[in-house]
Amino acid sequence: MEQIRNFCVIAHIDHGKSTLSDRLLEETKTISERAMQNQALDDMDLERERGITIKSHAIQMYYNHTDGKKYTFNLIDTPGHVDFSYEVSRSIAACEGALLLVDASQGIQAQTISNLYLAIEHDLEIIPILNKVDMESAMIDEVSDQIIDLLGCSKEEIILASGKSGIGITEILAAAVDRIPAPSGDVEAPLQALIFDSMFNSYRGVVAYFRILNGKISHGDKVKFVNTGNEYFADEIGILQMEQVKKKELSAGNVGYIITGIKESKEIKVGDTITLSENPCDVAIQGFEDVKPMVFAGIYPIENEDFEDLRDSLEKLQLNDASLVFEPETSVALGFGFRCGFLGMLHLEIIQERLSREFDQEVITTVPNVSYVAYTKKGDRFVINTPSELPDPTMLDRVEEPYISAQIITAPEFIGGIMNLTLDKRGILSKQTYLTTERVELSFELPLAEIVFDFYDKLKSISKGYASFDYAPIDYRASALVKLDIKLNGESVDALSSLVHKDKAANFGRKICKKLKELLPRQQFVIAIQAAVGAKIIARETISALRKDVTAKCYGGDISRKRKLLEKQKKGKKKMRQIGSVQVPQKAFLEVLKLDD
User: Fold this and answer.
1) Which terminus of the chain, N or C, has fewer Cβ atoms within 10 Å?
2) Are 383 and 503 within one domain?
């Protein structure tokens, strides 16, 4: 155990975690030159296409230190985007140390601070690293001062590095041995292992990744999952390298995987404790807090008979992404589906893309919203996840919506634009602090519903990509919210309903109606698209009917012949409109989410 080091890499998005991890893998010869590629640990096509890390990736490396000993490193590369912070918190629980990466050209950003606090809460040893020091725009002295202010470390403790050119890699590996403590634990004690991640293999069932705190586990042992109480045999155990490597035995301090032949995803839970059936541990390890979804949306199969397949796909995906929560629901327009909770809009987009690529599930996603709390005049309290759950307005006393505390770090020249954006989103400025002459931190209180759609994208464009954003929920506050219904030929489409602030309802309704007018195909009859609050219509667009030229066969003759044919067509159109139903294409549901583009 003295020669094991467990650590993770944490940073803001785009500060070079995956590139630095690539260099560490090369330096320790964990991966051959032939097999090397950029973002080596990111095994999803989606991660490579977008250039972001979505999943935490654990890998074991071996390092020969100058003291002549060979050390085992268990490295976990983590995501940087705020939507995947649950991945980071679980990775931190399996480590004793963290490499804190800061981009020398951008400085400390919001998610850097957020991830750092997570690491400090778990008493991790922090090694500060200044990355991208070989760039022309690198501000080494200024950013070093920011790190010293944040961590209270000395300038000598900061390692200057570059993931691209390999500067400082040997110093990082040496610092991991010298500064990060070896894991503490008792090999002779009963087995106590924490499941920090899992995945589904279609041939072998559920594969659980664990960190052993005490005791040891051998191939063939009968193990027990403490929270579920289920018992299984350890069919295979091993360590995580570029491929899974089988081992006969793993002991305290190590990170590895176990395959027990579990086929049902419900039987395993991230945060559970593994122990031996014959000699169980006395107490379970403190697991992880249940994730709090920020954004809710309905996910429905295009064909109703695919409902069970979609359930299986979501359960398998949940194994790989513990921050996804879902429950069944029904919709008048879309049939049976699931109400899913996500950590943000990027998370929603990624889940939808993964369902399509990994499980061949093409789905319809409804307008995302957040959960509200409604109080009736009798004093009853309801949690509202969909607009259709809102009680009758005559019974309603008030509706409360969730508020968040948001931190934005930016350059002073962008303050005006950011202020306008947040005030437009019903935000309240609570604090403004100059971190340095070139960096200012703005703290706002904002309704969560206002940042769900496009806040982050707009913030990036206003600040030319230099503002960083992080948020945490605070409380619920009463707001003047109304239910906005979208009607097609008088029939409500519940999948397009939303709860909006009453001052923004007319504007939002007009935008949706205009967008639907562009997207809905023309029919043989007139389609009326209306936005309504209660019985009051606040916006309307009309799609005119396709018309067949019924007078084409009339060559000359009396005008009354043409009139007669047109009147006959008019009657037919009227009848068709009464019985005609409007099909809403899937594209319309997706495009309504991008209203401001």
Assistant:
1) C
2) no
User: By C-alpha distance, which of 235, 199, 254 is closest to 74?
Assistant: 254
User: What CATH number has the domain bearing residue 202?
Assistant: 2.40.30.10
Question: Into how many domains does the chain fold?
Answer: 5
339/261 Cα distance (integer angstroms): 30
Cβ neighbour number for residue 61 with a 10 Å cutoff: 21
The tokens 């996910």 sit on which residue?
Answer: 299
Residues 163 and 228 in one domain: no
Assess if residue 318 is contained within a domain: yes
- Going 91 to 92 to 98 to 100, the CA torsion angle's sign is positive
In a domain? residue 282: no
Give the long-range contacts of residues 424-429, CB within 8 A, separation 24 or more.
Answer: 425/450, 425/451, 425/455, 426/450, 426/501
> Which own/partner pairs from 331-336 qualify as long-range (CB within 8 Å, at least 24 positions apart)?
331/298, 331/300, 331/366, 331/388, 331/494, 331/495, 332/492, 332/494, 333/493, 333/494, 333/495, 333/584, 334/298, 334/300, 334/364, 334/366, 334/495, 335/300, 335/304, 335/307, 336/300, 336/301, 336/304, 336/307
Residue 386 is part of a domain; what is its CATH number?
3.30.70.240
- Yes or no: say if 239 and 255 are a contact pair by the CB < 8 Å rule: yes
The type of residue at 175 is A
Domain of residue 131 covers 4-179
pLDDT tens by residue, 152-165: 888 888 888 887 78
Same domain, 8 and 135: yes
pTM of the model: 0.68
Q: Looking at 441, 461, 479, which one is the last position of a domain?
A: 479
Does residue 287 lie in a domain region?
Answer: no
What distances in angstroms separate CA 397 from CA 34, 373, 449, one per listed residue?
A: 67, 11, 20
Summarize pLDDT for 125-152 with one digit per residue, the tens. 888 888 888 888 888 888 888 888 888 8
Report the C-alpha gap between 19 and 379 in whole angstroms: 55
Indicate whether 321 and 441 sit together in one domain: no
- E strands, 411-501, are 428-436, 439-447, 468-479, 481-488, 491-492, 498-501
Summarize pLDDT for 429-466 with one digit per residue, the tens.
888 888 777 778 899 998 888 877 667 768 877 877 66
The tokens describing 269, both together, are 């839970």
Cβ–Cβ under 8 Å, residues 194 and 165: no
Burial of 117 (0-12, 13-18, 19+ CB in 10 A): exposed
CB atoms within 10 A of CB 326: 22
Residue where a domain terminates, one of 245, 276, 307: 276
In a domain, 322, yes or no: yes
Element (H, E) at 578: helix 559-579
Dist CA 218 CA 221 (whole Å): 6
